[in-house]
Specification:
It contains five helices and no strands. The protein is mainly alpha-helical. The protein has one domain. The mean pLDDT is about 95.
């Protein structure tokens, strides 16, 4: 379980750098477009790819650290026993939701990768061929993390 935690937190820290890359590319595009009147065909699509990758692969890290946005007003007013059951319910719903996402995204992701699907834009990057399978991968990592948290939670019973 700690291996899953450590890997997901490590992955989240690594993909955070992608946002810095997106900022640098956007800065370059602004300079190229408005200062040198020479816009790029690639900056927008690469920035979208970097941000999408960062978003998807940071999900397992956020889950590992329990940093998702949550409305806890009800959880904080109930007793410890009911809070335990509410947490169990939320973990099970999360596992089912991510399992559904894996099921729904698997076929599309494999297909996009096999045909090397492209955006069709000016740069025509293979972003869909990479992002669609990444949805399945990210959901699988979240499911592993949720199972690790479920095991820890059940031990506290």
């Amino acid at each position: 379980m700690q291996l899953v935690d450590r890997f997901n937190i490590w992955l989240g820290r690594q993909v955070a750098w992608l946002y810095l890359g997106a900022v640098a590319i956007t800065f370059y595009e602004v300079l190229a477009r408005y200062i040198f009147n020479a816009p790029t065909t690639w900056a927008f699509e690469i920035t979208i790819f970097l941000c999408a990758t960062g978003y998807l692969l940071s999900g397992p890290s956020v889950t590992a650290q329990d940093q998702h946005i949550a409305i806890t007003s009800i959880v904080e007013i109930v007793g410890a026993r009911l809070r335990w059951w509410m947490r169990l319910f939320s973990l099970l719903v999360g596992i089912l939701a991510m399992a559904g996402l894996i099921y729904a995204s698997w076929r599309s992701g494999v297909h996009a990768f096999l045909i090397w699907e492209r955006t069709g834009g000016a740069f025509n990057a293979p972003t869909p061929a990479l992002i669609k399978p990444m949805i399945t991968l990210a959901a699988a990592l979240v499911v592993l993390q949720l199972f690790a948290q479920l095991a820890r939670h059940l031990r506290r019973f």
